[in-house]
Design goal:
The chain is α+β, with helices and mostly antiparallel strands and 430 residues long. The protein folds into 2 domains: 261 residues, no CATH class; 144 residues, Mog1/PsbP, alpha/beta/alpha sandwich (Protein Transport Mog1p, Chain A), CATH 3.40.1000. It is 39% helix and 21% strand. The protein contains 14 helices and 18 strands. Strands 10-11-12-16-15-14-13 form a 7-stranded antiparallel beta sheet. It has a 4-stranded antiparallel beta sheet with strand order 7-8-9-17. Strand 4 and strand 5 form a beta hairpin.
């Protein structure tokens, strides 16, 4: 049981730790949560890039304080700028963060930082704190703040946000110190730790400006704190200490890294659909949906949702299973509606559909089910109050009725953006 504590020696510090689980339990938790990561994010479909990242991670892990663990390193199919570690050596890096790195050494710095969290058992301590507080959130939410219930992160409360904010400054600095040490042991330049933190800090500051303009919360890699690395004397000191390790080769490997990420998907992935000018295109599913102009669209693995600028209304599109029977039957089934509930037939762009109005979690809601080919899709419209629903009803209804089978012209617009590496030469302009 996780609630039973015991004393063990911390693999990094060598001092006793009060822990709530054995190493085998830690690995078991990581293995279980790994399945959820794969479902929520998806694995980026590039075997060569996956092997490249895994090889670097395994070399780093082999020099760590817990080299006996069976580590896993995966690139997940997300545009988020993030990397994270689950208990037991399950480590993930998004393709989104890869697009901002400049060398193999910087990639190794990110992986080394996450290995540091594993070797120092920070996740075990986080579980202990959460268990002690008896807070009802999943383990995956503790370690991966970006994973929320569909649309839920748009409205997440302050308490949940504080809980999911990261490991804390001391643990993050320790992960930086360990990561820099593993870099040096593996032959990479430990100064890459400072460079990568600087790059990601600049990206965080840029995203904060964009987020302010878009009326959303900024997104940042969990390892970043208020100070910029140029002014962070503690970070500079731990990196200098790592540089004193005998045998450091100070490898950078910029060119090979650039070759590996050339043509990598940037922003939305075709597997999750593409958003262009608030229009959602999904070529594999063969559908298109237009969201209202000015609404903030969030494309998740299991749904795509849009929030009004005033944050009082939400539109959500997701799969509703196979198109069997009538749309009204599917709608009643997914909402568990009784026979007396009012469900009205509807036609949207020539497609069979059904719609009902109800109250969910105290909020006025309209949900439609539309049949397209062999699949059913649910489109939900919700507002925080009756007045807000009335205010946004026209825009939400227009979005609902924009759902249609993707056209040949739209397929051409749904191609993903990709990273391209171009070598600068004299006279080149852009």
């Amino acid at each position: 049981m996780l609630a039973i504590g015991s004393c063990a020696v911390n693999p990094v510090s060598g001092t006793p730790d009060f822990v709530t689980m054995s190493e085998s339990q830690e690995v078991s938790i990581g293995r279980s949560e790994d399945k959820k990561v794969r479902e929520q994010y998806g694995i980026y479909d590039d075997p060569a890039l996956q092997r490249y990242v895994n090889d670097i991670g395994q070399r780093l892990a082999g020099t760590s304080h817990r080299s006996g663990l069976q580590y896993q390193f995966l690139v997940v199919d997300s545009p988020q700028v993030n990397a994270f570690a689950l208990p037991g050596g399950y480590i993930y890096i998004t393709r989104g963060i890869l697009a901002y790195l400049n060398s193999e050494a910087e990639l190794a710095a990110v992986l080394g930082h996450e290995i540091g969290h594993v070797t120092a058992r920070h996740s075990v301590q986080q579980i202990s704190a959460t268990t002690a507080a008896n807070v009802g959130v999943s383990l995956l939410q503790i370690f991966v703040p970006q994973i929320r219930n569909a649309g839920g992160d748009m409205l997440i409360n302050a308490l949940g946000s504080a809980l999911l904010s990261g490991y804390g400054r001391e643990h993050e600095l320790e992960a930086d110190r360990l990561g820099a040490e593993y870099l040096a042991r593996t032959g990479y330049d430990p100064q890459a730790m400072i460079r990568v933190v600087g790059v990601l800090k600049d990206q965080e500051l840029f995203d904060a400006e964009v987020a302010k303009a878009e009326g959303r919360e900024p997104r940042a890699y969990h390892g970043l704190f208020a100070s910029h690395p140029d002014n962070d004397t503690r970070l500079q000191e731990v990196v200098r200490e790592a540089g004193r390790i005998k045998g450091t080769e100070n490898r950078i490997n910029r060119e090979e890294f650039m070759q590996r990420v050339d043509r990598m998907v940037f922003a939305d992935s075709p597997a999750q659909g593409i958003v262009r000018d608030n229009i959602f295109y999904h070529t594999d599913l063969g559908l298109t949906l237009r969201f209202p102009a000015g609404w903030r669209v969030q494309n998740n693995a299991g749904n795509v949702a849009a929030q009004s600028p005033d944050r009082n209304a939400l539109i959500d599109l997701r799969s509703a299973g196979p198109a069997t029977g009538a749309p009204a039957d599917t709608l009643r089934k997914i909402l568990k509606l009784g026979a007396g509930s009012t469900v009205s037939p509807l036609t949207i762009a020539g497609l069979r559909a059904a719609v009902t109005d109800l109250t969910l979690a105290g909020k006025p809601t309209r949900i439609a089910v539309v049949f397209l080919g062999k699949s059913a899709y649910a489109i939900g419209l919700q507002a925080n109050s009756a007045a807000a629903f009335q205010q946004h009803e026209s825009a939400m209804s227009e979005s609902l009725h924009s759902f249609h089978a993707i056209t040949a012209q739209e397929r051409g617009l749904a191609k993903p953006m990709r990273v391209r590496i171009i070598t600068a030469r004299a006279g080149l302009t852009f």
